[in-house]
Write a structure and sequence with these properties.
Strand content: 5-15%
Number of domains: 1
Number of helices: 18
Largest sheet: 8 strands, parallel
CATH superfamily: Metal-dependent hydrolases
Protein name: Adenine deaminase
Keywords: Hydrolase, Metal-binding, Nucleotide metabolism, Zinc
Enzyme class: hydrolase
Number of strands: 8
CATH architecture: Alpha-Beta Barrel
EC number: 3.5.4.2
Bound molecules: 6-chloro-9H-purine, zinc ion
Distance between the termini: 22 Å
Strand order of the largest sheet: 1-2-3-4-5-6-7-8
InterPro entries: A_deaminase_dom, ADE, Ado/ade_deaminase, Metal_Hydrolase, PLipase_C_Pinositol-sp_Y
Radius of gyration: 18 Å
Structural class: alpha/beta
CATH topology: TIM Barrel
Helix content: 40-55%
Length: about 325
């Protein structure tokens, strides 16, 4: 096994709905009586070729339409944890998209109960500690985000943070200042996708207007030297997803990924899988691909793994136990 696969690591940028493998799509469709616009697992897999973020999101929201009951969410999460363990994951901070299920008539109770039924026993079964982060769909706008916040309130005992995801361009972080202020007052951790397809200015907004503790993706920060200095000085982590960036054509090929420039600028970078069922690899494969294509030595790979714990929301004593 490659070093990148074996290294103990935390995964900090992982959409649980993006772990839904084609086989489970068909199994949930069958047991829930949902009809699909593809006949076979292979036919679905053939669609995993994307032009940009939106073309991926269209399929991502379509496929998750088979998730109807708590059991579906439990099975999906169990499958992810089993795969993650094989890839050295010891801690996972997991995103989910409440609005993507509420809008289909699936009660939030069903979603959260399903996820937590799996996560509750993750440490015993898989040796993986977990946190749950609820993301607002930025393309549904700030009013719907605030309504979603209200719906989340009864579940805050199970939720450690909020994030911001979905179609980025035209949906700047600053629009979501009010809902992030509420989450901050409630003591939640704050993260946001920014600088994936959107400009470096969205990363500034995520930091200065939303007050996020980590930036998801953030790769377009390389276009702004002052922003790089800010991220490095304040030790604000970026959760970078190399295979995702190539598959969604944010970066033409892995060999041209801005990762080395971020590292050279002194930014605290972590490596993650984003939506591993869709992008050709789980987090260990992201580590292995980065080492192979960008030529990082073993010490650099160990540093990425150490960064994943430094950037996590584990308490300081548990973070340090991994370093
Ligand atoms: C996502 Cl790759 C990516 N970017 C933004 N939002 C997302 N939701 C799921 N995957
Ligand atoms: Zn993401």
């Amino acid at each position: 096994m490659s070093l990148g696969m074996a290294l103990p690591k935390a995964e900090l940028h992982l959409h649980i709905e993006g772990t839904l493998e084609p086989e489970l799509v068909f199994e949930c469709a069958r047991r829930n009586g949902v009809s699909l616009p593809f006949a076979t697992v292979d036919e679905l897999r053939l669609r995993y070729v994307f032009d940009d973020l939106q073309s991926f999101l269209d399929l991502y929201y379509l496929a998750m339409g088979v998730l109807r009951t708590a059991r579906d969410f439990t099975d999906m999460t169990d499958a992810y944890l089993a795969r993650a363990r094989e890839q050295g994951v010891r801690h996972a901070e997991i995103f989910f998209d409440p609005q993507a299920h509420l809008s289909r008539g699936v009660p939030l109770r069903e979603v959260v109960d399903g996820l937590t039924a799996s996560l509750r026993t993750s440490e015993q079964r898989f040796g993986i500690s977990t946190r749950l982060i609820a993301c607002f769909l930025r393309d549904q706008g700030p009013d719907e985000a605030m309504a979603t916040w209200e719906a989340l309130r009864p579940h805050l005992g199970d939720i450690h943070g909020v994030g911001l995801d979905s179609a980025e361009v035209g949906h700047p972080p600053q629009d979501f200042a009010p809902v992030f202020a509420r989450a901050r007052e409630a003591g939640l951790h704050l993260v946001a996708h920014a600088g994936e397809e959107g400009p470096a200015d969205y990363v500034w907004q995520a930091l200065d207007v939303l007050g996020v503790q980590r930036v998801d993706h953030g790769i377009r920060a390389v276009e702004d030297p002052e922003l790089l200095r800010r991220l490095a000085r304040e030790r604000t982590p970026l959760t970078v997803c190399p295979l995702s960036n190539v598959r969604l054509r944010c970066v033409p090929r892995l060999a041209e990924h801005p990762l080395p420039r971020l590292v050279d600028a002194g930014v605290l970078v972590t490596l993650n899988s984003d939506d591993p069922a869709y992008f050709g690899g789980y987090v260990g494969e992201n580590f292995a691909a980065v080492q192979r294509e960008l030529g990082f030595d073993d010490a650099a790979m160990r540093e990425f793994a150490a960064n994943s714990f430094r950037a996590s929301f584990l308490p300081a004593d548990r973070r340090e136990a991994y370093l």
